[in-house]
Amino acid sequence: MKRLFLTILIATALPVLGYAKPNAVKSSQQGAQESREAVNYDVYVGKYDVAPGFVLTITNENNKLMGQPTGDAKIEFKPEAEPDRFFSSQENVHLRFGRDEAGAVIGVIVTIDGKDFQAKKIK
What we know:
The chain has 123 residues and is an alpha+beta fold. It has one domain: Beta Barrel (Lipocalin). 15% of the residues lie in helices and 39% in strands. It has 2 helices and 8 strands. It has helices spanning 2-11, 29-37, and strands at residues 46-51, 54-60, 65-69, 75-79, 85-87, 93-99, 105-112, 115-121. Strands 1-2-3-4-5-6-7-8 form an 8-stranded antiparallel beta barrel. It is globular and about 30 Å long.
């Protein structure tokens, strides 16, 4: 998955999204666990335009956040301590969802091996 992402993203210029200020960070381990249990994955579900012809599809499957890039297998993303942030234990990929001023999810920043790629929510 990393190679496919990197190949497509490096070859394509991505638009810059304006994201709302990040939510407050929970610092305690207990707060992080509560945050994980209370996540509403449905707000992230949709299609994100990573590059022309390359879409990241996010789904909620049995209360698990799944991501599937065009032409690749689905992988599970687990919540981090901070709201709107997820990671994959299968790949070195992190997701940081952005929201507008009304709180609706409008895009995602995909971090692969420390490099950020922005994608706008299209559905």
